[in-house]
Structures are given as structure tokens and as C-alpha cells.
Design goal:
This protein has 87 residues and is mostly helical. It contains four helices and no strands. 54% of the residues lie in helices and 0% in strands. Helix 1 packs across helix 2. InterPro entries: ACP-like_sf (IPR036736), PP-bd_ACP (IPR009081).
Amino acid sequence: MFDNPRPTIRTFIIENFLFGDPSPMPDDAGSLIENEILDSTGVLELVAFIEDTFGFTMADDEIVPANLDSVAKIADFVLSKTWRASA
């Protein structure tokens, strides 16, 4: 179980969508979609990463900006899913 998934998520986004350059990475409250870091294909790649890394499957209704639009939102979503799975 991950106590703090943010560094793992942040590293994945920087390496896969920003080509290793963290300078355009918005803060944890910044929108990955509005800042054009993620597009629809990127969202699918991010979902696959989340499922593979954190060990759960995302339902279609969970693939929404409320869960995936910032590092903070992704981390909170991951924690909520992994916490429920371990309870």
C-alpha cells in the first residue's frame, strides 16, 4: 500500500508527458488537462499506469476530471481506492 502516492504519480507524469522536464508541471492544484499536459490519449495512459501501479481497476464512471485532473486529485483518488481495498 502507498502512504503517499504523489511522488510516484508526479514522476510518471513528468517522465511520460513532459519528457523529463518538470518546469511546466503545474502545482498539485493545477489542471493537467487545462495546462495541456494530458489529452484524451494521455488520460488513457494515466489510467493504465494507475491500474498497474496501484493494483485496482478503474470503472468507466471514475475516469473523470474530478479524479484525474491534478496530482493531488489523482493521489486522493488512489488513496481512497487502496484504503477501501485494504479495509
